[in-house]
UniProtKB/TrEMBL annotation:
A Pfam family the protein falls into: Amidase_2
Disulfide bond annotation, renumbered to this chain: 66-72
Molecular-function annotations in GO: N-acetylmuramoyl-L-alanine amidase activity; peptidoglycan binding; zinc ion binding
Cross-referenced InterPro entries: Amidase/PGRP_sf (IPR036505), Amidase_domain (IPR002502), Peptidoglycan_recognition (IPR017331), PGRP (IPR015510), PGRP_domain_met/bac (IPR006619)
Organism annotation: Pogonomyrmex barbatus (red harvester ant)
Domain N-acetylmuramoyl-L-alanine amidase: 43-178
Protein name from the UniProt record: Peptidoglycan-recognition protein
Signal peptide positions on this chain: 1-25
Gene that specifies this protein: LOC105423473
Amino acid sequence: MYITKRTTLIFATVYVTLIVQETVATSPNIISRSEWGARAPKSRAPNLKLKPAPYVLIHHSTGSGCETQALCQLKVRQFQNEHMNTKGWSDIGYNFLVGEDGNVYEGRGWGKQGAHSIPFNKKSIGICIIGDYRKRTPNAMAVQAVANLIAQGVQNGEIKSDYKLLGHRQTWPTICPGDSLYTMIKSWPHWSERE
C-alpha cells in the first residue's frame, strides 16, 4: 500500500481531531508567570464581566512556533514586551498561550479580561497557540494542551459548560487563527458558527 503525503496529513488531522473530542480529565501543565519570567503588569487586569466565561477564543501568534519550554518561554516574554511596549497594553493580551512543547503558559490567567479581541475581552478566555497556522495545524501535544486547559476551566467554574468556541476571525476582521487552524477548530466540541 502506498501512503501519500496527503493521506498522511489526513491521518494526522483525524488523529488530532479525535484527541480534542475525548473527554479530558488530565490537568494541563501550566507554566506560571513567575516561571516564564513575566514582567509585572502596568496595571491590574479587571475581572471578566461574565463569569464563568461564555466564550473561548482561539488565536495564533504568527511567526515561528516553539517545541521546547526554553524557546516557548522566550517567545511568551517577547509577546509580553511587544504588547506592553509597542501596543501600549497593560500586560500580555492573552489569558493563556500554548506551545508545541505541550505546555500552557499563563498570561492574564483565569477570570481576567484580556486584550485579544475588543468586543469579546470582557466575556471570553483568549487562548493563543504559538506559531503560524495559515498552512499547517498545531502538533498533537499543543492541541491536547488546549483541550486539557478548556476542560480544566469548565471543571473549575471558569468557563461555562455550554461555552461557545470561536476563532478570532469570527469576532474581529483578521486572518487569525490562520486558515488551517480555523478549519481544524470547526471540528472541535462547542465550535459555534455564530457568536
